[in-house]
Amino acid sequence: MTTPLRKDAARNWERIVSVARDLVDEGTPLQLNDVARRAGLGVGTVYRHFATPEALLETVAAPCLEALVAHGRRALTDADPWRGLTGFLFRTVEAQVTDAALPPVAAAATDALARTTELKAALASAGAALLDRARDAAVVRPDLTAADLVPLMCGIAHAVTVHGGTPAARVDTAHSYLTALLEGLRTAPPTT
After folding, report:
1. What pLDDT sits at residue 189?
2. What b/e sequence results for 130-155 when a residue is b if at least 16 CB atoms lie within 10 Å of its CB, and e otherwise?
């Protein structure tokens, strides 16, 4: 159980995370000294809350990871395994191309925060379970594994990033690329 922050400490934490979010969104690498300057806080205050830039970046990405995990859990309750899987994949690729904090956190081999490790494991578990359900229902290729799906999704996100455009255009492009990928992954309906 963690002790709640004092009001001033909580305001400082929120200010630090807000400034970090802005920096990430503009593509500026996080440096704790820069965050302190932009937040109008002492460097020691920032370091008391976040020991490393990675910990701060993971904190910025946490709401997106939490939302994806929650979506994955809801998708597992969908009676249609294909719809559950594809809805989850569409939501995931949207997050990859609209939240600049997500790709580096998702790709990191190690995490600065235990919470990040928990969220990434829960997200991977939901994705694997959704794929297993779709495979068991024979609506997706039987040779497709979760280990295959992750780099395919990352490839789509990378292609969209290279393609560029506004956030809305990136989402449209991601949807188009993912639709093409899913058409290749889905099993053909039985012929009668």
Report:
1. 64
2. bbebbbeeebbeeebeeeebeebbee
